[in-house]
Design brief:
The complex is a heterodimer of chains A (475) and B (267). With 475 residues, chain A is an alpha/beta fold. Chain A contains 23 helices and ten strands. The radius of gyration of chain B is 22 Å and the shape is globular. Classes of the chains: A alpha/beta (475), B alpha/beta (267). Bound molecules: iron/sulfur cluster.
């Protein structure tokens, strides 16, 4: 059953050699990090606010099944139709059925990471439905035929010149825009306004869904999210099942931390709270709203008390901006809907360790992500846990044990034996200092290390030896 | 798919009960602490919103219609979409513009001259080439220049004038429920009388802010006003004109929503 393993090492090697890409990322990440730091200059406010936000998310997870039921009840009471999907295939089928019923052949979409998980665009295009990404970054990535390289800034891997070139290739009247970001933005505005006007369905993600009131909260800067949720006659919102919060009052802590962590702005231009389709007498707004609640592995993530914390995430992307690996290789090297630290713990749990077993290893365990995560997710602990899961079959994670290797197990067994017996330890260390330097770097296990680093030199005398010489007792 | 529903909720309940979590209490002090002396709220709102290209005008209850129409005329707007059913809309339509420029009464009878049918072309007096033109030359008459601004009431479903809305409207006027000092944000609750697209599609969004309707934080506003008791179809916070930094982190304004946000502080 094992799916083909995704090879992060190979993809990252290619990315590292692309100096354009590295420059684009370095510049963007430095900017995002310093802007975020300005927002959290008040250390006390940062500590108390993130404790509050973490408590909000933990409370939501503690009552998750009840809150989802309450959300469903209140959405339904408000006239919003609720659909449940265990798999992405089910979610795609639900979406297609809604589009067919609405006789819609064009959908406009605001940013939604859940629909990236679903590969919804490709699915609908196979059924002759056009889906247009309307977030400018997503639009660029869609024109380019690639994937978002960052969850907040999808086109961050490209610079203005590259985008201007892309527009020129793909859009008829792009010749006059030159390489000016404002002119390119204006061109996209003109094209997309036509689409907002004509689309039969608008699609969006959900940043938080309030169980208490049956309200969907969406935040954005561009206004495309509001367009998608207001202009077309039908709106479909997609949410992972963890996106629910208990009370309306739980929204402000999240809104306070998400934009500041993500892009260093105090708030996004729009905070859009939707509680019902168009009511009698109202002159605009969709006549139908559908919410698709997707599981796609989240309920198994939830099942394990340690891994459950993965679901606290509010998708701010700050962990990417601060990750020493992500900032070097960029988002595409992960070949996953969610790159960077959160992707490295979430995607292997969704897609299984056979395919994604390498992801938790793309980490230096420096803890930078844990320090800036606004909801205090122990990302690195979960990363370690997944490394263990990858080599030990268990019931907790899909395809656990997929990376188990007899050789590796044997090596560690030997290592443990050597370190727990004083005699074995002495023999081993003495042997290493005597003949270690003579071992060629091309030996099977050594080669992994020496192919990219110089071979370490063993000291002629062990530390124990030296200590004994100095007369230090009990060594 | 009700199978999915049962399966999902079943798994969640079973596994949660096997490993229940006790969340720490939520201490809202950091939000309650966000307070400013009343006299500092407005300057702070202004500073924060100006930092993201919001423009401000000062006015009184008596003169805001003149302030708004003057500003828009100078900005080169040919028309202003407004909400005739609100108190502000009534005030605006009672403001003495030359009668030939007012459409409210025609519009009541069906195809007002400002409206094209949903598939018809835009009327010739509504400009289509966007972005907005520069300031208009002074009218030859030398009269007050409001004469060139046409008022268009949003008095019908969007389906009846979608194309004109997207291609022929320069500015939209809305009220607000107030503003928030913490983040520099306007609070809007669109309604049947004041529809949602008024603050989104026109190239210029003009918002009236009463100087006494200021809150410290989003949290304070929603608690004081007991939002959770009855949420409207749509509630909004708006903190500037539409913007993006998706092209190489370069800020560009007016990507999908309004290119300009003009807040009129009414005292
Ligand atoms: S894991 Fe934390 S830092 Fe990373 S995206 Fe989620 S909330 Fe943000």
């Amino acid at each position: 059953m094992a799916e083909h393993a995704v090879n992060f090492a190979a993809a990252s090697k290619a990315a590292l050699q692309d100096s354009q890409l590295r420059g684009n990322f370095r510049r963007a990440m430095d900017g995002l990090m310093s802007k975020r730091a300005v927002q959290f200059a008040d250390a006390k406010e940062w500590h108390t606010m993130r404790a509050l936000a973490a408590s909000v998310r933990l409370r939501a997870l503690a009552k998750l099944p009840e809150l989802l039921e309450q959300l469903e009840t209140n959405l339904t009471r408000n006239g919003i139709q609720v659909h449940w999907a265990s798999t992405t295939a089910e979610a795609n089928a639900i979406t297609l059925a809604i589009m067919r019923k609405a006789n819609a052949t064009l959908a406009v979409k605001g940013k939604s990471m859940v629909t990236e998980e679903m590969h919804l665009n490709a699915f609908l295009e196979d059924h002759d439905i056009e889906v247009l990404e309307s977030d400018l970054g997503e639009y660029i990535v869609q024109l380019d035929g690639t994937m978002p390289s960052h969850i907040i800034m999808p086109a961050i891997h490209l610079n203005t010149k590259q985008i201007a070139h892309l527009f020129k290739q793909k859009i008829k009247d792009a010749a006059s825009t030159g390489e000016d970001a404002a002119a390119l933005t204006d061109l996209a505005r003109r094209i997309l306004r036509q689409k907002f006007m004509n689309a039969g369905v608008g699609m969006s993600g959900v940043n938080a869904a309030v169980a208490e009131t049956g309200t969907l909260c969406l935040i954005e800067n561009e206004g495309n999210g509001r367009m998608c949720t207001t202009v077309p006659p039908v709106h479909i919102a997609f949410m992972g099942l963890e996106k629910v919060v208990e009370k309306l009052e739980d929204v402000p802590p999240i809104i306070s931390l998400l934009p500041r962590s993500a892009t260093g702005q105090p708030i996004t231009t729009y905070v859009n709270m939707i509680s019902s389709p168009r009511k009698e007498g109202e002159k605009d707004g969709p006549r139908e709203i559908h919410v698709v609640i997707l599981d796609n592995g989240r309920s198994s993530v939830y099942a394990d008390p340690e891994l459950r914390d993965t679901l606290r995430c509010i998708r701010c992307g700050a962990c990417m901006n601060h990750c020493p690996v992500y900032t070097k290789v960029g988002g595409h090297a992960y070949e996953a809907p969610y790159p960077g630290p959160i992707g490295q713990i979430l995607v292997p749990q969704m897609e299984g360790l056979a395919k994604r077993g390498e992801m938790p290893h793309a980490c230096t365990m420096c803890n930078a992500c844990v320090e800036i995560c606004p909801v205090q997710i122990p990302i690195v602990e979960i990363m370690g846990r997944l490394r263990v899961e990858a080599v030990h079959p268990s019931a907790s994670v899909k395809d656990s044990g997929a990376r188990a290797s007899k050789t590796e197990a044997l090596v560690w067994k030997g290592w443990a034996a050597m370190n727990t017996s004083p005699l074995a330890y002495k023999i081993a260390t003495t042997a290493m200092s005597a003949v270690g330097n003579a071992a060629p770097g091309s030996l099977p296990l050594l080669k992994e290390w020496t192919s990219v680093r110089s071979k370490p030199r063993f000291a002629p005398r062990t530390l124990h030896d030296l200590a004994r010489k100095k007369g230090i007792p009990n060594v | 798919m009700s199978d999915a529903r049962a399966a999902i909720l079943g798994t969640l309940r079973r596994t949660r009960d096997a490993h229940p979590v006790t969340p720490p209490p939520s201490d809202f002090t950091p939000l309650a602490d966000k307070q400013w002396p009343p006299e500092e709220r407005l300057p702070r709102i202004r500073r924060m919103m100006e930092a993201v290209h919001t423009e401000f005008l000062d006015a009184t209850e008596a003169d805001w219609p003149a302030v708004v129409t003057d500003f828009l005329t100078r900005a080169g707007a040919a028309n202003l979409l407004y909400a005739p059913g609100t108190a502000d809309g009534a005030t605006l339509s009672a403001y003495p513009l030359p009668p030939r420029e007012r459409e409210g009464t025609h519009a009541q009878h069906g195809e007002g001259e400002g409206f094209a049918g949903s598939d018809g072309p835009s009327p010739s007096d509504t400009p289509s080439p966007f972005p907005l033109r520069g300031p208009l030359p002074s009218p030859e008459t030398g009269e007050e220049n409001t004469a060139s601004l046409t008022l268009i009431p949003y008095d019908r479903p969007i389906e009846d004038f979608k194309q004109q809305m997207f291609e022929g409207i320069d500015a939209g006027l809305t009220g607000t429920l107030g503003a928030i000092a913490d983040t520099g944000s306007l609070i809007l609750w669109p309604s049947a009388d004041e529809p949602r697209l008024l603050s989104l599609v026109p190239h210029i969004h003009v918002a009236l802010l009463r100087a006494d309707a200021l809150y410290d934080s989003f949290w304070q506003a929603m608690r004081d006003q007991r939002w959770a008791d009855a949420m409207p179809t749509n509630a909004l916070l708006i903190s500037g004109p539409s913007k993006t930094a998706d092209i190489e982190q370069t800020l560009a304004y007016g990507v999908h929503g309004p290119k300009r946000l003009v807040v009129v502080i009414v005292r």
